[in-house]
Amino acid sequence: MALSIRMQWLPKAGNRDDEYEDACWPNHAVTTSQPVVRCAVADGATESSFAGLWARQLVAAYAATDTADWLTTDWLTTLPQEQARWQAQVAARTLPWYAEAKARSGAFAALLGVTIAHDPDDDEWTWQASAIGDCALFHVRSERLLTSFPATTTAFFTSRPLLIPSVPNQFAALDEHIQQARGDSQPGDTLYLTTDALGQWLLQQVEQGATPWRAVETALAGRKRGFRRWIAGLRSQGQLRNDDVTLLRIGWTER
Amino acid sequence: MPYQAEISRTNPSCFLFLIDQSGSMQDPFAGGESSRRKADLLADAINRLLQNLVIKCAKEEGIRDYFYVGVIGYGERVGPALSGQLAGRDLAPISDIGNLPARIEERKKKVEDGAGGLVEQTIRFPIWFDPICHGATPMAQALTLAHDVLARWLPHHPDSFPPIVINISDGEATDGDPSIAADALRSLATSDGNVLLFNVHLSAKGARPIEFPARPDALPDEHARLMFDLSSPLTPAMRTIAQQEGFVVEEGARGFVFNADMVSVIKFLDIGTRPSNLR
User: Which of A55, A81, B53, B91 could cysteine-pair with A23, CB 3.0–4.6 Å?
Assistant: First the structure.
């Protein structure tokens, strides 16, 4: 068996593609038989600048962490280097006074990382998730939600979560805010990683007794155009907040 | 539900500040908190506010025009009060505000170095608005001008989050009852609600500020009650922000502070201009 990873994303309605400030890893469709696979989504905060850059850095940093010790939150140890790299990239540009002032307060992003491991001896699959902020993971089997993480109710999305800053901030004790979960999975399951607007909608559907997963699959099967039409419909009906949307799907496939 | 419109580049909102520039603004604040003139402290607050608004709208590619902004002064004359290249303009998109300050001063600021220490940074501090204090207090004329400026802006932005007008003064109008002009101003509307008029009365007596009152009962005099009547209620989102900032705000609380000191002016401006629905 192999893992098949697909993703779709869209900027806010009215914004250009280059104004999209979420990120995901991998950022292109992949089918892989690697024993350990790391995926992530991140959501750069609109209120900050260079937030898309920060979100892209975070998902790449999560994916690049030494996978030998994947049960720990060791990806946080790379944070100071990532902050320094973000600051260097921003400082390399000549900025007008306002962009300089905005960048001084840093960019902020939510991050969800999921590592899937396969034990070939007993052919077992497990996943381990770490999150800071309000990106969401959904573990679905036979169109039934087994786990949602870290949000378990839609109320989670109305709070203002702590986000990961791109500048050193002594007040943000990030390690206290890391949420973690793990689970067993099996071929036929699906894991969805989303940023907050879509995560909120999915959980709302489940709370209302609906089964949104078939609609998600249909939208993904329609590639970019199908996904765009689906999201535009939800937005115009007022069901989905006008926010950047990212959906990463992990499924099992015969290789 | 009014006051819910998304603020975006295609659907921007508007802030208009009316600043008392009468002769009494050259006095210091009562209570001895500073020997600086009210006009100087207020100019600092307005420049800082414009700076913060620009920074809120700044992204890596430039400034997003979420807002139009204007400053009208009233004293010896009534009219647009920004300096430099923006002089004479009653409203400007926030990108023009950001790109065209009258001048940029340099100030020193201590910031954390990330290793538990502090380093001194040179910060560029843009100036748009210079203090003036001369003449009487033609508040009614200023409110009428605000009405005319917004009446021209609104047809181009019929679905916007309604414009917010913040009037800051240390005294009573000297050109008659401002109620008629204020009523006309507040009757302007978009599909998302009426124009909001908020009033800040600067302290002359060093008395305790009365912030966001919901009823006129506790106000000390006729003038305070008049300014209360001129003021719009806070929106529910603003009431929530005010509560988070530690104010006791009842249902129906007005966007009004009486006997404001500088701290309460700055807090008021922050609550009245904090955008919550930027896209």
Answer: A55
